[in-house]
Amino acid sequence: MTILQRAATIAVMTFSLAGLLGNSAPGKATGIDRSTTNLTALANLNALSPQNVPQIAPVATPVATVEPVAENAATAEAEEFDTLAQAVAAQDSAAADDALQCLAGAIYFESKGEPLTGQLAVAEVIINRAKSGRFPTDVCAVVKQRGQFSFVRGGQIPTINAGTAYRTAIAVAKVALADAWNSPAQKALYFNTADRRPSVRAIKVASIGNHVFYR
């Protein structure tokens, strides 16, 4: 082969190689247009319907229940006193109902002038009778029971002058009904003067002033 033929052959091979390199662009190496692929994927992602997205249910936070506070619970407790005289002095003199009036009348007629403990003991006898099941079941019926208290006239309590002694009787009656002071003659069902005994067999409970108390 001559020198000219060799040179021509090299030139042809050079031009062929250059053509091949020119047709091998990176974007066409796999036959896929990358820019088009990326845009299509983004479009498909944005087109996802809402129902395909998982929903997170809200969590209910429990609310603590607040219990109502008992209102003025301390008022249900009986007021405490250092002496019976204080308990009596703390009461007003208004006779609010029939039971209070009947009890105060019995205290007045049976024990006015007696020490406060003696007046309270008389009230306790009447209240104990109403609770015993052996006498009428309310205070007025106990006081007005035939043959029990000599001051009762025709089943009625006589009219009382509203003086100091009666106001004290009302206060003592309130103390007794509220059980605001312990009587020294608790559970007593009878009382009488010291020179007389009850007509029934009874056990002596206390002796206060001019009266002896029995159960």
Structural description of this entry:
- By secondary structure, the chain is mainly alpha-helical.
- It is built from seven helices and three strands; from the N terminus they run H-H-H-H-H-H-H-E-E-E.
- It has a three-stranded antiparallel beta sheet with strand order 1-3-2, with helices on one face.
- Helix 4 packs across helix 5, helix 4 packs across helix 7 and helix 5 crosses helix 7.
- The longest helix is centred in the first third of the chain and has 21 residues.
- It is globular, with a radius of gyration of 55 Å.
- It starts with a helix and ends with a strand.
- About 19% of the residues have low confidence.
Please summarize what this structure is.
The protein is mainly α. The chain has helices spanning 3-23, 34-46, 84-89, 98-111, 116-132, 139-144, 164-177, and strands at 190-193, 204-208, 211-214.
Give keywords.
mainly alpha, globular, 215 residues, 3 strands, three-stranded antiparallel sheet
What spatial order of strands do you see in the largest sheet?
Answer: 1-3-2
Shape: globular
* Alpha carbon gyration radius: 55 Å
SSE string: HHHHHHHEEE
Uncertain ranges: 20-32, 39-50, 63-77
